Amino acid sequence: MRTRTAAAAALLFACSLTACGSDKPAAPESTVKASAPEHEVDCSDTSLPQADWMEHCNTETPAESEAPATDLAFGKPFAWPDGLEVTVVDAKLFSDWGEFEEPDPKAHEFRVRVKLDNKSEQAIDLDQLSVTVDGATNGGTADLTIFSKNSAPLEGRLAKGVSAVKTSDHSLEKRYGKDIVVTVQRTTDDDFLAFPEFTGTIK
C-alpha cells in the first residue's frame, strides 16, 4: 500500500509541474465568485417605487454643471433641463410704502428678487413660476403679498435669450426670524419640474 501511495504522490507532483503533458503551467483556479444577477425590475410598471425606478430605469445623466435642487445660496443659479435659469438675488425688508399701505409691526415684510435668464430655445411663460418662503430656523410660512411700488411680478413671457429680474413680496412673523428658504416652483402643461430651494437671510 505504501508503494502505491508513494507512486501516486510522485505522479501528482509531476503533473503539477508539467500540467500533465502540457507545455504551459496550469492556470490557477479562480477564486472569484460569479457575480450575482442584477436585480430585475419592470420599468413599465406604474406602481414601481421611485427609488427602484431611479436606480434601475433612469438613463438620464445630469450635466456636470447642473446644481442640486436644495440648499442653494442666494446668488447661486439653478438651471432647468430646457435651459431656463433662476437665481434668488436677495431678500430685503420693504419700507417704500404706498399711500394706502402701512407696515405690520409684528412681521418682517420683505421683497424677494428673482433673476431669470432664458437660455432655452423658446419663449417661457412666467405664469409657470411662483415663489414660496418659509422660515429656516424654527418653521413658519410667509404670506404672499404685493407691495405697490416697483413690483415686477412673475407674469407675461420671457423671450429666448432675454434676462429679467422679477419680484415676489412676502410677510413673515418676526418670531420666525430672518433666515429663510425661498422655493421657486415651476410647472408646465406636461410635467412638474424640480423646485429649487435657496437659503439666505432677509437684510
Verbal overview:
The chain has 203 residues and is mainly beta. Helices cover 12% and strands 32% of the residues. It contains two helices and eleven strands. The protein has helices at residues 2-18, 50-56, and strands at 72-73, 78-79, 84-93, 107-118, 124-125, 129-135, 143-145, 157-158, 163-173, 179-186, 197-201. A five-stranded antiparallel β-sheet has the order 2-3-4-9-7, with no helix packed on it. Strands 1-11-10-6 form a four-stranded mixed β-sheet, with no helix packed on it. Strand 2 (78-79) and strand 3 (84-93) form a beta hairpin. The longest helix has 17 residues, at 2-18.
Strand content: 25-35%
Q: Report the total helices.
A: 2
List the strand order in the largest sheet. 2-3-4-9-7
Q: What about the largest sheet?
A: 5 strands, antiparallel
Please tell me how large the radius of gyration is. 32 Å
- Which stretches are poorly predicted, pLDDT < 50 over at least 5 residues? 1-22, 27-38, 60-65
The end-to-end span amounts to 97 Å
What is the element string, with H for helices and E for strands? HHEEEEEEEEEEE
Secondary-structure class: mainly beta
- Overall helicity: 10-25%
Q: Work out the number of β strands.
A: 11
Shape: globular
Mean pLDDT: 80
